[in-house]
Structures are given as C-alpha cells and as structure tokens.
Amino acid sequence: MYNLNLSAFFIGFATAYFMMQAYYFLTLKDGIRFHKILGYIFIFWALSCLKDIIQTIPGFYTRQTLDYILVFDGWSAISFVCFLFELTMPGWVTLRKVAVMFIPFLIFTVLYVLFPCDAIFYSYSAFLIIFGLTIVIVGYAKARKYIEYVRDNYSNIDDIDISWIKYVYLIAFASQLLWLLVSIVSNIYFDAVYYISIIVMWHIAIYYCRGLKPIKVEKDSDDEKTSEDKTYPFAGQLEKIVEEEQLYLNPNLSLSNLVARMGTNRTYLSEYFSNVKGMTFYDYINEQRIKKKSVPMMKEHPEYTLDYIAQLSGFNSQSTFRRSFLKYTGVNPGKYRSCIGEQQ
Asked: Contact, 322 vs 333, CB < 8 A?
C-alpha cells in the first residue's frame, strides 16, 4: 500500500504542477501565441499524468494496465513536436497539422485496445522510436538554423535566444530512457524518477520561455542571393561607420539597420561578417561594446557600477554583458576591475 501511495503522490504532484503551469501561460498578461500553445501543451501533460492514477487502484497495477498506459503515453511525442516547431517556426502549429500527426497514434492505440498483443505493442514501440529520432534530428536542425539566424541578425537576443534548448534535449533523452525502462520493468520507484525527470525538463523550458518571444526566420528572396563575386565594396567603410557613429551603443541594433545604412542586402552583409570578420553580427557588435566602451569606461570611471557600465555599453542584460566580457577579455568584469585597481 505504501508503494501505491507513493506513486499516487508523484502522479498528483505532476498533475498539479502541469495544471498550474497551464493556467499561468493561458492567463499570462501580454502573452503571445507561443505562450498559449505552451498552456495547451501543459493541459495535455496534466491529463496524461492524471490518467496514470488508475495504476494506484488496488489490483490495477498489472502488466496489462501498464501496457495500456504506455500506449497512451506515446501521444506525448506530439507535444514535443508542437513545442520544438512552434519555438523555431512561430505559427507552425495548427489544429490541422496536429490532427494529421495524431492519426498514426490513434490507429495504433485503437488496434492495441481491440487486439492487445505483443506484435502490435512492439510495432507501436518501433514507430515511436522512429518518430522520436525524427523529432530529434529535424528539431535539432531547425533549432540550430534558428540560433544561427538570430546571431547573424540581432545584437540583442535576450528575448529570442534558444541556445538553452540543448539542456532540454539532454533531459528529454534521459526521460525517454527512463520511459523505456519503465515499459520493460514494472517498478513504482522508476515511475517516480520518471515523473521527476519530466518535471525538471519542462521546468527548465518554462524558466527560459516565460519572457521568450520567438521570431520568424525570414527566407532569402532571389534578389538577396549573393553572387560568386566575393569582394565586399563596403569593407572598411562599415567598420568606420559603426565606430564613428557608435552604432553599437544601440541595444536593439539589428543587421537590418546596417543593411539600410550600407545600401546592401542582408545575406551579403551576413556573409561578410562570417567570411571576412570570422564572427556573427551578434559577436561583432558585442565585441565593439566591450572594447570601445566597457573597458575604457572601467578605467576612466572606477566609481561606476557594472550594471551602469553594461547599460551605457549597449547591453540589455547583465548576463549577456558578463558572457561577452569574459569572451573578449578572458576574465569576468569584476576580476578585470580588481586588476585595474591593483595597478593603480
């Protein structure tokens, strides 16, 4: 009975957790479409956890019951697709696409309910493995393309960066291994660890998604395709304008701003940063902020706080300022300031 009570506790905790998160995102003031979809995803997960309560009823914790539960658990793969694709391609998720994805899951579920046998269960398991690998491969490619686009086009990426997605991938992979283990070995303690892992996974995603505002990755039009001529007539002039006009101090400076200023196109300019400067637009602008503003300001005004220096240097957040400072000087801002004080 203790084991069943323990299982009921984790099921109830997970259900309550996802319901609370669903309520938060669905009622979020100034929430965007992505937040609404997150809310619906968490409603699904709350219901998915709630269904597991049947296994805590005395006499129902059997191999057959667990198999039925695992068949329905497979539907969670759809929620991962919706999350990853809406994250990297805002507007992708529609009722029609979700319904189409749902068809093979429904077919396997109905078949297993009507004809519960190992052949169908293992076929369904194989389908889930293939579907899961597809999600990982395609989702990773989409995420990588999105991250590259963001860093090639924006200097302020605090609200649009998804480089944290790698942590979600790692925990999701561990969770799926646990799910596979649970499907093979009937053990309530493994179930508990599984519930904890999915909560941790989604909590990391929630932490980063609260203020996230995904953007659409614009495809290059035919007139933006770069020619085979690798000369850049604006070379040197671009750097001069950025430095003399201190464009890097604009916290929301984007590649489009420089495109309009230089009279070129986005792809050509992005290629220039990559091929000639050896860095993304995001890295180039942050490097200018550190070298041209932050470092000189630290030397000239030791009374300024690091927050104030970051703000005057064009950074929207302390975290981005610290990461950039460490990257371009080799030490964190606090240590750098201490070294200046010792030299003086």
From this structure: yes
CA distances from 289 to 268, 286, 314, 325, 330 (A): 23, 5, 7, 9, 15
Gap between the Cα atoms of 270 and 149, Å rounded? 10
Please name the residues in contact with 292: beta carbons below 8 A apart, sequence gap of 6 or more. 243, 246, 248
Q: Residues 109, 71: contact at Cβ < 8 Å?
A: yes
Instruction: Name the residue among 287, 298, 274, 297 with its Cα closest to residue 328.
Output: 287
Residue 184 has φ and ψ, to the nearest 5°, of -95, -45
Q: Quick one: what percent of the chain has pLDDT higher than 70?
A: 90
CA distance 129 to 135: 10
Residue 23: strand, helix, or coil: helix
The model carries a pTM of 0.83
Closest of 166, 175, 183 to residue 126, by C-alpha: 183
Q: Burial, 91: exposed, middle or buried (Cβ in 10 Å; 0-12, 13-18, 19+)?
A: exposed
First to last CA, the chain: 70
> Is residue 1 classed as helix, strand or coil in its secondary structure?
coil
Helix 281-288 × helix 318-329 angle, to 10° = 80
Cα separation, 212 vs 165, whole angstroms: 12
Alpha-carbon distance of 205 to 307, in angstroms, equals: 27
Indicate the SS3 state at residue 141: helix
197 and 157 Cβ atoms separated by less than 8 Å: no
What letter would DSSP give residue 234? T
CA distances for 231 relative to 84, 187, 239, angstroms? 38, 65, 16
Distances (CA, A) of 23 to 36, 37, 134, 329: 10, 12, 31, 44
Pull the structure tokens for residue 259: 């495109």
| 113-158 residue pLDDT tens | 899 888 998 899 899 889 988 888 898 899 999 999 999 999 888 8
